[in-house]
Amino acid sequence: MGQDYELFITNMKKKTGIDLSLYKEAQMKRRLTSLFKKKGFRSFADFYHGICRDDKLLDEFLDKITINVSEFFRNRKRWEILEKKILPGLLKENRNLRIWSAACATGEEPYTMALILSKFIPLSRIRIFATDIDEKAIATARLGIYPERSLEEVPDELKKRYFVREGNLYKLSEDIKSTVIFKKHNLLADPYGGPYDLIICRNVLIYFTDEAKEMIYKKISNALTIGGILFVGSTEQIFNASRYGLAGVDTFFYQKLPV
Ligand SMILES: C[S@@+](CC[C@H](N)C(=O)[O-])C[C@H]1O[C@@H](n2cnc3c(N)ncnc32)[C@H](O)[C@@H]1O
Description:
Elements: H1 3-16, H2 25-38, H3 44-53, H4 55-65, H5 76-93, E1 99-102, H6 108-117, E2 128-132, H7 135-143, E3 145-147, H8 156-162, E4 163-166, E5 169-172, H9 174-177, E6 180-184, E7 196-201, H10 210-223, E8 224-232, E9 246-250, E10 253-256
Parallel strand pairs: 1-2, 1-7, 2-6, 7-8
Antiparallel strand pairs: 3-5, 4-5, 8-10, 9-10
Helix pairs in contact: 2-4, 3-4
């Protein structure tokens, strides 16, 4: 790793608590280099000094490292498995499921969970905890207003029931919004809490080093109740899940084993 980048990592960790060394290096370096060059800086050292002088630049740095792309029912087939196979099993044990959507970006994922769960239990009984490292994404999530392209996979009856169209945007109903509690959380540094019956952690692990992934799987496993489920993204299968006390129950779903 170049000394310039290494020092930048140390400085940014002190400044923001974000440890860039746990993100895949080539990808992250490329993204940040393109940003600082665009802004007229020549090195990571210059860039760091710029960030210290200008909060807007710090925001742009945060935007660059957090890729907030999401959509409702992302990889819809997986959500169907969740609805038809996984949820009925979990609800048989417990009607008050504790659910965490980690790295939820702009909220489409926890809200998708609420839309599905609304078919099984009254909305007033649903509580979903949703977190992301990016406060701006969380603010958007709390607003609950989305462009049409985010809703492409939403089944018509749910769209009709829970969204109101306003021009080119769709506003999510207050009763769905109120089922989700959003909070800032860094998967690489903050405690995980729990126990949870279901943890949804999708399309974020791809950005992390193997070492970081391992740490996250261990912490997720510890935060799951016995029999609880981890739902991962479509490129994020866990090799050797039993090392973390987990067993695959379907593609992209893992269950916490008794200790
Ligand atoms: C591509 S989005 C995934 C959104 C959603 N889970 C989905 O699958 O559609 C990745 C999210 O991970 C968040 N993220 C990146 N690093 C993180 C960290 N260390 N802790 C928590 N969230 C993080 C980003 O802010 C971004 O919102």
